[in-house]
Structures are given as structure tokens and as C-alpha cells.
Amino acid sequence: MNLGEIVFNKLQELGKITSSEEGVTRFFLTKEHKKANKLLKTWMEDAGLKVKVDNVGNIVGEYRSAFENAPTLVMGSHQDTVKNGGKYDGALGIVLPIVVFKDFIKKVKTLPYNFKIIGFGDEEGGRFGTIYLGSKAVVGTFDYELLNEIDDDGVRLKEALENFGVEGNKIEESKIKEKVDGYLEVHIEQGPVLEDANIPVGIVKGIVGCHIYNFTFEGMAGHAGTVPMDLRKDAGVGVCSTVVEIEKYVSTVDDLVATIGKIDFSPYSINVIPGKATFTLDIRSSNDEIIIDSIQKIKKIAQNIATRRGLKLDIQNINKASSCNCDESITKILEKSILSVKNIDINPFYLYSGAGHDAQELKKITNIGMLFVRCKEGISHNPKESITPEDIEVASNVLTEFLKLYPNNN
Ligand code: HGY
Ligand code: MN
Ligand code: MN
């Protein structure tokens, strides 16, 4: 079996660890997370890495170089998924480096650099809403306020960490102590560009900024049959009108996308006028100024509707991830690696990431690079997410060349 097939088969195995029938659902600090860490641990140890689980549930496999003052290269991605997601978003970026490292170290015996592979416990924010909890802890931007975040069952992050068996009050110990010289993340593209260009892998030039907000409208719950339309303070209609106006406005702005992913009415009964209604807004652009400017306009749209309908409005920011560029110290080595791979004739192809990644957090402490792998019809965050062993083989060969070249690109 070649590396691509080995990685592909392991991803099928990891993809079976899910709490949902449809697609893969693996949330932060759940029994599925625990099972995934256990499986990743066996694979990391089998590759000769020293493994630990840190105080926020990340799994970390480490190789220490025999060379004095060796630089440190970190790779990784997230092991958690969205609800009913695919098998490859995140997982590819953990399993592929493990398999390639195992094969590579057998051949070269030692590396002139320290090497870590991290399976971040939470990137999607599927359980607690806040994204990048795993990588925030590793780079040292984890805010202890986050321990009070609660999930849909009312469980606080603090308790969830304790139940998982890690010391949530010592999260600072997860911060990487040594200087990190570079971070490389392999990830499925989650878009159609590579497929359209008919190329198996691409180099990421930058990652969009992404802000997440929670909007809450409060009106008056009432009887669905007795309250005349003009006397209602219907929070549900307030939300729906705002969502339609947001979509209309955002569609007129270049380099901007917005998604209303969650919507909720309360008391959520057929014959009760919703007294309270909420929705989440995920808004992204490669240009942070566009996000900031559009949020101001969207807040005005929402406030005008709330005022007209006699509703109270509250808007909370949940997360702000800035857009960022990848660094030449990594992308130039990726270029060279792609050109060095034998038996394929592809040129370095650059593209932008409309998805957010842990690399955005790592950007705060080191130089970053990402290698994208083509995925079928660009489908992701969907059980239909799919990639081929052949494309994984190409990405594995590129990574092998990268490990040969790092930290130089000559
Ligand atoms: O939402 C994203 O872009 C990523 O999948 N967390
Ligand atoms: Mn994702
Ligand atoms: Mn991802």
C-alpha cells in the first residue's frame, strides 16, 4: 500500500468515531473525542512519536532532534468536526503527517529539527460556540473567561474539561514553551478551485478573517389566534426580516460572505407568537476592514427592524479571527517540494482559503503555511465530503519532500 492508501484507510477508521448516524459528529471533550485521541495516540506512538494529551484535550506527538538548538516545526489540524460533517476536514491534517513522518524517519533516521504533530481538540466551536479553543491554548491566547462558556445542555467548559480528565485550571501549561520556527497544516480545500483547475494540491496564500455574532430579538410572547397582526411584538418575524435584509445587503458587497447558521425561536410552540428569537451570523472577508464596515451596516439594519417592530435587540460578538497571509519561509519550501515530487508534473498553484483554520492562531507565534488537497465538488461540512487516495498520495509525497528540505528551500 502506498502512503495515500494508508492515510485514506486510517481516515475511514477515524471517521467511524462519531455520535451521529449521518456523517461524522465529533465534538470537543466528548467520548468521541476521547476515543479519537486514543486512536491517534496509537498511530503517533507507532510512528515513534512521544505522545501526551494537554490540559485542553489536544493530543500532541513529539520528535526531539539530537541536534543542539534545533529549530521546531509544528504540523497539525483539528480532530473535531461540525455536526454531520465529513471524514476529512481536520482529520487529514493530523493523520497524513503521522503516516508520512513514520515512513520518512525510517529512511533518514534523524531530523535536524524538532517536530510536533498536534490534533487540536476544538477548532469548529461545535459544542461551545467559540472556535479554535485547542490552538488558542497552544499559542497562549486562551482566555480563562472561556471556561464559563456553556454547551446546549448547560454544561460549562470548565466542567467538561474536568469530566474529560484534564486540568482545565492549568491550560497555560498547554502553551508551547519553545520557539516555533514554522507551522504547516495540510487540509482539504473545502471549495471547488483545485478541482476546477484539475490539480490535486495547492498552496494557500492567505486565510479569510471571520467574525461570529449572536443576535437576540425580544418582543412579547402571545396567543397565535387572539393578537391582531398590527399589535404584535413578534421576535420571530423580527429575526426573519433581518435575515432577509442581511442577505440582500451582503450580496451587494464584493469579497464578503455571511451565513446565518443557527436560528432559534422561543418558546418554540406552534400556537405562540415568539417572544424571543436569536440567530448567529458568521461573516467573512479576506479584508478585515470590509468585515468591520459591514458589521456596522448590519447592526443598523437589525436595529431599524427592531425599532419598527417594538422589539429589544442585543448583539454579542462571539469570536473575531483576523485574515492573515501565509509566509514565504514556508510557502517557498512547499513550492520547491511540489516541483521535487517525481512521477507527477504539477506546478505550484496558489489559492485563497475561504475557510478558517488553526493556522490563523498559530500565525500569532510563528510563520505559517498550508497545503490544500482537492476535494470532490468542493463539498465540505457535509457527509458527502470526499477525497481520493491518489490525491492524498500526491500530498504525502509533497510533504516528504518538504520534510527533506525543511528549514531551507534550496
Ligand atoms: O468555519 C470554518 O471555516 C472552519 O471549518 N472552522
Ligand atoms: Mn471545518
Ligand atoms: Mn477544518
Automatic annotation (TrEMBL):
Q: Does the keyword Manganese belong to this entry?
A: yes
Which keywords does this Swiss-Prot/TrEMBL entry list? Hydrolase, Manganese, Metal-binding
Q: Which InterPro entries match?
A: Amidase_Cbmase, Bact_exopeptidase_dim_dom, Peptidase_M20, Peptidase_M20_dimer
- Keyword presence, Transcription: no
Locate the Peptidase M20 dimerisation domain: which residues?
A: 205-305
What this protein needs as a cofactor is:
Mn(2+)
The subunit field of the Swiss-Prot or TrEMBL record says:
Homodimer.
Q: Which family does it belong to?
A: Belongs to the peptidase M20 family.
Q: What is the name of this protein?
A: M20 family metallo-hydrolase
